Amino acid sequence: MNVLKFGGSSVANPQNIEKVVEIIANASINNQLIVVVSAFGKTTNKLIASAEQAAQNNVNYLENFKEVEQLHFEVIHELVPKNQQEEVKTHITSLFKQLKTLLEGCFLLNEITPKTLATISCFGELLSSYIIASIASKELDVVYKDSRELISTSNDFDKAQVDFQLTNANCKAYFSTNKHQVTLLPGFIARTKEGKSTTLGRGGSDYSAAIYAAAVSADELQIWTDVSGMYTANPHLVKQAFPIPHISYQEAMELSHFGAKVIYPPTIQPVLEKEIPIRIKNTFDPENVGTLISKITENGKPVKGISHIENITLLTLEGSGMVGVSGISKRLFETLSAHNINVVLITQASSEHSICVGIYDEDAEKAALKINEAFAIEIERHKIDPIIVEQGLAIIALVGDKMRNHQGLSGQMFSSLGKNNVNIRAIAQGASEKNISAVINSSDAKKALNTLHEQFFEEKVKQLNLFVTGVGNVGERFLAQIHQQKKYLKEQLKLNIRVVGISNSKQMVFDESGISLKSWKEQLQNGEASSLELFFQRIKTLNLRNSVFIDNTANQQVSEVYEHYLANNIGVVTCNKIACASELNNYKKLKHISHKFNAPFLFETNVGAGLPIIDTLKNLIASGDRVHKIQAVLSGSLNFVFNNFNKNISFHDVVQQAQEQGYTEPDPKIDLSGVDVARKILILARESGYELELSDIENNAFLPKKSLKTTNNEDFYASLTEFESHFQQIYKEAADKDCRLKYVAEFNNGKASVGLQHIPFDHPFYNLEGSDNIVLFFTDRYPVNPLQIKGAGAGAEVTASGIFADVIRIGNQ
Ligand code: ADP
Ligand code: ASP
Ligand code: MG
């Protein structure tokens, strides 16, 4: 004999019920079956809501009632065989009449007792089971039986305790003589010896089925639901979660106790004793094998699953008067138990200075009051502090029988949470080591689940969530490169890169599952209005792990928001030099925040576009080298300009060409005035460990004062034309000496300067082509022959690839 239980979503509408009947028919071919059904999806919630509204004298209580009534008659109308409709309608109408009378009673009395609430909430199952029995009887030999005649309980109405002796005897007597192919019963409900209806607790239909399975020593208990088994984590919160093929009773019990709602925790106990296997199956994918819960598990992964419970309050009792005083915890737990307050988690420091207990939010107020009463004398004498109450928390738990044989799991758990800035309020590990739990803020729960899932189940693929601002030349190329490399990154580098947000100065667009990189332009055009603040707030609210903000602008205001991102554990990758070249204190602050909040701050493209200059420098310093001198040509723009400028072309035209080809900043004066180069040498000096300000850098500008003073591009270009002879003179002086003009940045013994130099043909800078950059590092290890890095130092494509490299660096961390 097998026992099959169908949950609320499996019987939520006529189409689903047809699927259920088909599953029952297939399963009954060679087997006698006990079939337990829940109320039609959401019915129990609506009944409870309606009862509570009625008790609060809210006239709207009938709305929920009517919705429930309508759904049931719709199912009867569509699925019950014509010749049975009258009889079924009569029975169901009479149930609705009783239900309405009870609700009216609550409305008139303005109150509801636990007994009445249990009676009202039972109706969902009474209705669903009777209707489904009559539908299934069309093809099958089905008998309907009211569970209240079999399951006997205590009178704790909303979550009654089962009297197994009486219940088992009732079941044995009934099923031993019942020869019908299928017995159909309502889940969730039972009754006291006095005949009053009770419930087995929310989600309790699973338990009803387990009680029957144990009583008749069934071959298998099948829980049919809306997911294909018990998953490694709640599949609605963790997209990458997958069904666990085989799991032990203890593991399933721990997971369900810690929030894996797919099975009601008490369900396992009755079948475990008889070693009856449980299969979790998907009504909407019946071929899927689902999850097998049984006594033995194969030698699988040490961590089997991750679950979480919401709406947790942490109570902390502490005070100097607790140390070494026996009986404090006994009194605390007696107080909680005397008021029926369920304790979900306990931790106590070995100093005995404080005890922490996790309870459900709904009990918090009562618990605090009762504990403060129980310890009133100690509180008055300042031996113990009034109880500390923290709400809005969640518990997250790793579960696995084999965890105790593996060292370092809790280390991995807490370091991965820490890296993602998930603040841990309390930790509990059972002595059996089947479970490690942490209390965290509710707002971090989804991020924590995904982080741990990635750590323990997807070790090889790391997800990065990118938020890109600025989609001009560089930003557009960057998105195109990511699009092109996505597959390679996933397969070869085990990096799953999702662009979750894109913004420009006017609009922004978000998609948590990843914006399509084919159609991002249209999506952005139709996006919502954007601002720096709105973009940041949305990213913060999304609270995704491994989030990275990417600044592809050259904008001052954007550079000023990095600290908010970093302080929220969101990495920053930027090609914008303004932040790193700002005041020394600001640069140091950003580095400090990045370190403190474990949020990478990378800006490789600030110097030499995609060339690995800063990364190389960092590695030199980290490995103990010291930089004495830097000589560099760091302006792709100025290089381009002076490589192309001669007596046959005007300076104005060369600069314009450079700008058109994307070799200059949007404001070309920043390049030509030397400010851009000064910023770059400043950043290199700072990264080498020297504390310099931009004003410390000697800037030997070659632009006439008038050009420097212009405030817009038009005036700037006009001034270039006006001073053409000045530029020709500069060219001639170099050409007369067979030298080339290079804008050189130098750092030597703590001092830096930038300016045009005449470079002779035997100098390493002489042959720099196009927009190439070159850097020479003279260090302890490279005192005479410097370490040289040379290559294309400007342009959208290479800058984008430099940003890409920083993103990969974060992925590899
Ligand atoms: P039913 O109505 O069939 O009893 P439930 O809603 O009680 O279904 O349980 C199924 C739901 O449990 C799933 O839809 C899923 O949202 C939730 N769930 C939470 N944790 C897990 C998990 N680890 N594996 C599978 N489902 C889970
Ligand atoms: N209908 C009940 C509830 O919603 C029992 C169940 O579905 O398991 O809690
Ligand atoms: Mg359920």
Tell me what you see in this structure.
The protein is 42% helix and 21% strand. The protein has 813 residues and is α/β, with parallel strands linked by helices. Strands 3-5-2-1-8-10-11-9 form an eight-stranded mixed β-sheet, with helices on both faces. It is elongated, with a radius of gyration of 36 Å. The structure holds adenosine-5'-diphosphate, aspartic acid and magnesium ion. Magnesium ion is lined by residues 7, 203, 206, 264. InterPro entries: AceGlu_kinase-like_sf, ACT-like_dom_sf, ACT_Aspartokinase, ACT_dom, AK-HD, AK-HSDH_N, Asp/Glu/Uridylate_kinase, Asp/hSer_DH_NAD-bd. It comes from Tenacibaculum larymnensis. Keywords: Amino-acid biosynthesis, ATP-binding, Kinase, Lysine biosynthesis, Metal-binding, Methionine biosynthesis, Multifunctional enzyme, NAD, NADP, Nucleotide-binding, Oxidoreductase, Sodium, Threonine biosynthesis, Transferase.
* Count of helix runs: 30
Mean pLDDT: 94
Q: What percent of the residues sit in helical stretches (DSSP H or I)?
A: 40-55%
Low-confidence parts:
none
How would you characterize the largest beta sheet? 8 strands, mixed
Organism: Tenacibaculum larymnensis
Keywords: Amino-acid biosynthesis, ATP-binding, Kinase, Lysine biosynthesis, Metal-binding, Methionine biosynthesis, Multifunctional enzyme, NAD, NADP, Nucleotide-binding, Oxidoreductase, Sodium, Threonine biosynthesis, Transferase
Subunit structure: Homotetramer.
Domain ACT: 317-391, 398-476
